[in-house]
Specification:
275 residues; alpha+beta; Jelly Rolls; Arc Repressor Mutant, subunit A; AraC-bd; AraC family transcriptional regulator; sequence-specific DNA binding
Length: 275
């Protein structure tokens, strides 16, 4: 997102239709944005530009780019700009039941003061805002929700009450992802083949393989894509064969994984091979 808000004049809100108990918005405001109100969801978000202020838990809080806002369900708050330039932010509204599905009966995480510098939660919130789109694959959205809930629990300082992790179940899920990486896979499918509850499986997969099921799936697709690209398959055909929605979908994930777009990577690899 562009961090320069000096040229923005009118207040605006852009929102997505709720999916699975999750709603996303992006907005820009000058002056007073919201009067005191409360809702029954978590409000978790990032200030993209400017200074965002809000009254919360008997104090005036300030959120800056690089921090994460976490407003607990049913806690009263308002919102206003901290400077004349206004502020721009993204927010995700998550039903407590969705968080509870991941945490499995633990107390709901609470972030004192409503603003945190926790880096894990910041990255999980960025991922959730990016991945919980209407066109995202179901496993991608489930991964984002699990990552957000676990990071939120960690940032709150809560102790896990889980039983020991199940390696055999995670291994069965991993093998299934390898065999099915060119198509959309759901967490329910992985739960069925692994013999484990979907959210326990999501947590255990991270424990044993260091990443989420969806990211693991995407990386297998990218491995296949790179091999096809090196064989001379065009990018559009590569994207389709590797299981991506289209070339732009593949490019977005390729850049996120390797830091450069696939066309540039291929040109650099080809140039190196001809020397």
């Amino acid at each position: 997102m562009d961090g320069d808000i000096g040229q923005l004049q009118s207040d605006w809100i852009s929102r997505s239709e709720p999916i699975g108990g999750v709603e996303r918005i992006e907005a820009f405001f000058h002056g007073n944005a919201y009067s005191m109100h409360r809702h029954d969801t978590y409000a978790i978000g990032l200030t993209l530009a400017g200074v965002q202020c809000f009254h919360y838990q008997r104090g005036l809080r300030t959120s800056l780019p690089g921090q994460t806002m976490v407003l607990h369900p049913d806690e009263a708050h308002d919102g206003q700009a901290g400077t004349d330039d206004g502020f721009r932010y993204q927010m995700i509204y998550v039903q407590p039941a969705a968080i509870q599905q991941v945490l499995g009966g633990q107390a709901l995480p609470f972030i004192e003061g409503g603003v945190t510098n926790d880096p894990r939660l910041f990255e999980a919130t960025k991922s959730a805002l990016r991945q919980m789109r209407g066109d995202a694959e179901p496993l991608e959205r489930d991964d984002a929700l699990a990552g957000l809930a676990l990071a939120l629990n960690h940032a709150s300082g809560a102790r896990s009450t889980r039983k020991s992790a199940d390696f055999a179940a995670a291994q069965r899920a991993r093998e299934y992802l390898h065999a099915s990486c060119t198509r959309a896979v759901t967490l329910d499918e992985l739960a069925a083949v692994s013999g484990q509850d979907r959210w326990n499986l999501s947590r255990d997969f991270r424990t044993f393989y260091g990443t989420s099921p969806y990211h693991y799936l995407v990386m297998r697709r990218l491995e296949a894509a790179r091999a096809m690209m090196l064989r001379g398959v065009c990018l559009a055909d590569t994207a389709a064969a590797a299981g991506f929605a289209d070339q732009s979908h593949m490019t977005r994930h390729f850049r996120h994984a390797y830091g450069i777009p696939p066309a540039r990577w291929l040109a650099m690899i080809s140039d190196r091979r001809t020397r």
